[in-house]
Amino acid sequence: MTDAFTPSARTPKIRIRGLHKSFGGKHVLNGIDLDVEEGTSFVVIGGSGSGKSVLLRCILGLIAPDAGTIEIDGVNLLTASRGKREELIGEIGMLFQNAALFDSLPVWENVAFGLLAPETKKHNDKHPRLTRAQARERAGEVLTQVGLDPSVGALYPSELSGGMQKRVGLARAIADRPDILFFDEPTTGLDPIMGAVIDGLIVDCVKKLGSTAIAITHDMASAQRIGDQAAMLYQGRLVWRGAASCLMNSGNAMVDQFTHGRREGPITMELRR
Amino acid sequence: MNALLDLIAVIGRHVLEAARGAGALAMFAVEGLLHAVRPPFYWRVFGGALMDTGYLSLPVVAMTALFAGGVIALQSYTGFAQYHVQSAIAGIVVLSVTRELGPVLAGLMVAGRVGAAMAAQIGTMRVTDQIDALTTLRTSPMKYLVTPRLLAGLISLPLLVVVADILGVAGGFTVSVVKLGFAPAAYISATINAVKPIDITVGLVKAAVFGFIIALMGCYYGYSSRGGAEGVGSATTSAVVSASILVLAFDYLLTDLFFAQ
Prior knowledge:
Chain B: It is found in: Cell inner membrane; Membrane. Chain B: Keywords: Cell inner membrane, Cell membrane, Membrane, Transmembrane, Transmembrane helix, Transport. Chain B: Belongs to the MlaE permease family. Chain B: Could be part of an ABC transporter complex. Chain B: One of its GO terms (cellular component) is ATP-binding cassette (ABC) transporter complex. The complex is a heterodimer of chains A (273) and B (261). Helix content of chain A is 32%, strand content 23%. Chain A contains nine helices and ten strands. Chain A has helices at 52-60, 82-89, 107-111, 113-116, 132-145, 162-174, 192-209, 220-226, 253-260, and strands spanning 14-23, 26-36, 41-45, 67-72, 75-76, 92-95, 180-184, 212-217, 229-234, 237-243. In chain A, the strands form two sheets. Chain A has a six-stranded mixed beta sheet with strand order 6-7-8-3-9-10, with helices on both faces. A four-stranded antiparallel beta sheet of chain A has the order 2-1-4-5, with helices on one face. In chain A, a hairpin with a 2-residue loop joins strand 4 (67-72) and strand 5 (75-76). By secondary structure, chain B is mainly α. Chain B has one domain (40-259). Helices cover 85% and strands 0% of the residues of chain B. The longest helix of chain B has 39 residues, at 89-127. At the A-B interface, strand 6 of A face helix 4 and helix 5 of B.
């Protein structure tokens, strides 16, 4: 298995160096260095408020970092031209924590939204220009891929259960066959069985598309199911990196405390009594 | 001395905060308008916004204008009868409605109905990550959410005011003829003689400005909302209150600009 943190001859799909982000006086990201090789499924674990979501949002360009570089395919997003940046970020599909479906649109339009977006990058064989009818057909195919009946496409997000919303969110993320997939807490709020179903779908989709994936989670079972490699974020720094299969016996005191949910250990929670 | 310095510091902070807010609002408005001249344009979203802002506001604006026209006729009669100048009522009604009441009342009604809805809708999208999701789907949130609504406000309010003008005059006519005993033909003739194209035009210009302001406030406060349901609630309140105040302030400024001489 490739170690995602060992410098390799190949340009990593995603390379982050010295990433810093503060909100007011709070340092959320404190010098993140990270390489994610192409085709790897990478999991970032960490407690609530440890900066996991901020890391993803910085890569997506939703939050501007204070310092550092973020490269996709060797191109620094922070200094690239607007067109190049949009092109690279356009290759990222994202499953949000609460699915973030557009509640004013039916499910099929949610799934096909990126396919129909008129601002879409230049159309080519991978991203052909679709009519609404073709996009609806493609939405039906993707819904089937995530285990939903195409007839669900006619419903509105408010008519779906939490698990179905997550699956629709996943369908929307993969509909345009992105090179990179991000998953923000994919199993949060789901029962263990539905969580396992979503994880299975994520693994299937990532393998089928051959995409590079980054998932952030504090669900250990999910992290081991989804990830090839993992890292732990604590106080804005990556404090451990290794194979996801080693998460439960990493030999790192912080990771062990976190993965086993122990109160005692090097990680301290600030509680007011 | 220290107390004075503290007071100056507090005032200074508020002034800077207000200037920052005004600057951010101005940039938001400019960016929203610039997207209108840069393709692509979201016609479906624009059509939906036009429907929400214009067509669905029609009943409330129509009822308001109808009753407002009737009330002006009644109130004017009460006052003018003392000086035996009741014949001026038709002119008073038509000028009040076309110059002021049509645009202002329609503006205030639409601010309450549409401004609040825009702020709540966009604010909810903000706090549930839907706006971030738009960005990840290669769609500019400003272009998709804000520009169509700004244009819908700009276009639909003048159309609503045309209806409000007609119904306001009809309200005054009905009260004057049915309740106050005016001759219908004489009332209509006096109305036509009193009103000039400039009165209607200025009313429609005001309506376009008010429509833009209402949509801008709804979109701006919704777009900048933070912090869940409470944030969306405050955004909605701020949108309606600020839009209502700005409608009245711009009404004064435009009246001064067009009619002061």
